[in-house]
Design goal:
about 325 residues, 7-stranded parallel β-sheet, 13 helices, 14 strands, about 20% strand
């Protein structure tokens, strides 16, 4: 029986990465996981989770640390900032070094996002009919212009470097991710911006018509999907069904949300918590929404619609396909 793999996890102190760590500790307790942390206090917390979890202090700016740790790992996963190009390419450098000294080719997984799908020019609040598939539309997605789409520049740099070096790589693009995280540190994500903005105005609101839509998943399903790729990637070459290089791009999504309904569900949660009373939805301009938070119009006024056809064809299925109960998890501390 082959020995358990070693994994270097960047982002274990965050929302998705922390939930991935918890998932792996339940499903693969024999894996050896090294986590990148920012402080000795975080190191202490992680030591209590499992004897197979260790840590190293650094960030996506400590390039030497990233290269060194990636060069020791069978699997490298970045769930942290997907736009830190120098740090991400340093992880690839370390994976290249690992490939030179092991008979089993290592795997590197970069977790990006689907903000790249937001069409230009943006029609704030309007319905966007286009839904992109990672099967039917993959050539278009890989050829996106990096000058006007988020994440694309680094996504392309990552795939190109891995392709040139022969490293086995997978680039995952989850849609919006929410629900209560299960990791040791961060339990909520940027969706908190919406809740706090609604609380500040005392009622739910949308940008424009409120017809924008985002493909999404629960954070637990996102973690489960990432783990699915790791499990598939460590299989023997003849059994592994993943594609790598320029074809190693996969969406992650479980459902789709219309932002008007999203705002109403968030407001309903705030009513439950006694923070607002009014459930009448108002329509704001981009400028008005920006007064509550500079990123709010982008969060609820744009559309990013996708289908994770490749992932689902591999047999992965989400546990959460009804998103509304997830909205009740906001504000739960325990």
């Amino acid at each position: 029986m082959p020995s358990p793999p070693s994994l270097f996890l960047v982002g274990a102190t965050g929302y998705i990465g922390g939930s991935l760590l918890t998932h792996l500790l339940k499903t693969h307790e024999d894996w050896h996981i090294t986590c990148l942390v920012r402080s000795s206090a975080q190191e202490s917390t992680l030591r209590e989770l499992s004897p197979n979890v260790s840590s190293v202090v650094g960030s996506l700016d400590t390039l030497d640390v990233l290269r060194a740790e990636a060069s020791k790992a069978d699997i490298v996963v970045n769930c942290s900032d997907c736009d830190k190009e120098a740090g991400i390419l340093a992880l690839v450098d370390g994976t290249i070094e690992r490939q030179k000294v092991t008979d089993v080719k290592p795997l590197i997984v970069q977790v990006s996002g689907t903000a790249s799908l937001v069409d230009r020019p943006v029609s704030y609040g309007a319905k966007v009919d286009r839904v992109r598939s990672d099967v039917d539309d993959i050539d278009e997605i890989l050829a996106f212009d990096p000058s006007n789409r988020l994440h694309v520049k680094v996504d392309q740099a990552f795939m190109s470097k891995c392709d040139e070096s022969g490293v086995r790589d997978v680039l995952l693009a989850p849609g919006a991710v929410f629900g209560r995280g299960t990791g040791p540190f961060k339990k909520q994500t940027y969706v908190s911006i919406l809740y706090e903005a609604i609380a500040g105005r005392g009622r739910p609101f949308v940008v424009g018509e409120g017809e924008s839509r985002w493909s999404a998943s629960s954070v637990r399903d996102a973690a489960s999907a990432i783990a699915f790729f790791l499990e598939e990637g460590i299989k023997a070459p003849e059994a592994c069904r993943l594609r790598f290089g320029r074809r190693g791009f996969y969406f992650i999504e479980s459902f789709e949300m219309r932002t008007r309904e999203w705002a109403l569900e968030a407001a309903g949660r705030l009513v439950d918590l006694g923070r607002i009373k009014n459930l009448d939805v108002e329509s704001l301009t981009v400028e008005e929404a920006g007064k509550s938070h500079p990123f709010l119009a982008s969060l609820i006024g744009t559309s990013s619609r996708c289908r994770a056809d490749r992932l689902k064809a591999l047999g992965w299925m989400p546990a959460h396909q009804d998103w509304k109960p997830l909205m009740k998890e906001w504000g739960v501390d325990a």
